[in-house]
Amino acid sequence: MGVAAVVPAAGSGLRLGAGMPKALVRVAGVAMVARAVDGLLASGVVDDVVVVAPPEHLDAMAEVTTAGRVVPGGPDRVASVALGLAEVRDANVVLVHDAARCLCPASVVASVVAAVRAGHGAVVPAIPVADTVRRVDADGHVVDLVDRTGLLAVQTPQGFDAEVLRRAHAAAGELRATDDAGLVEAIGGEVVTVPGDPRAFKITSALDLAMAEALVRTELE
Length: 221
Ligand code: CTP
Ligand code: MG
Known about the structure:
binds magnesium ion; binds cytidine-5'-triphosphate; 7 helices; ISPD_synthase_CS; 2-C-methyl-D-erythritol 4-phosphate cytidylyltransferase; two-stranded antiparallel ribbon; Spore Coat Polysaccharide Biosynthesis Protein SpsA, Chain A; transferase; eight-stranded mixed beta sheet; IspD/TarI
């Protein structure tokens, strides 16, 4: 029984504004979805990858990746992951990894899988929050200063015991969590963290894309 990865790549990338699905946008010449899939496979611990693509871009997505399967996604991330998960068979560990976090190092993938194998039902990579964080009211007035101690920013790939993730998605209903660990928490499951990596940042805006390009070029030098 192996490790399968679901790669949600069905978003439209509105905030990046490239005029095409974000996962197809190239970072230093290679589409984000291809980089994300190759990064998972380069870890050596992932046996099977399912990419979840915008329904109208299935062929384009299949052309650029080496993933085993490309399946159509849904209207939001939770729906897309559920559709990918439905295609996973014969795996007792499932990773969910955003195509938009396409520069995640293989070492993070390996440590997430190792933690699931060690018996944790849900594992997320996370890094300390660098900024000072404040809660504000609707008018933008500061309500309180959030103590940064104990605050971590959560990344992907997130790793799960396959049954835990299936139960969490089956129970999700209308709950629209921004990640899969959130769905596990909602059914009372325990989520543990392993050290993430700044390079696993999510490409959301044009600035993020520029940073990703710079990072790839630096690593090639
Ligand atoms: N995603 C998905 N299906 C959706 C929406 C998002 O598979 N219906 C995926 C995206 O492709 C991305 C990941 O979830 O890899 C994280 O989402 P986000 O960064 O918000 O990407 P987009 O939704 O594409 O971007 P935006 O919100 O700017 O439109
Ligand atoms: Mg989005």
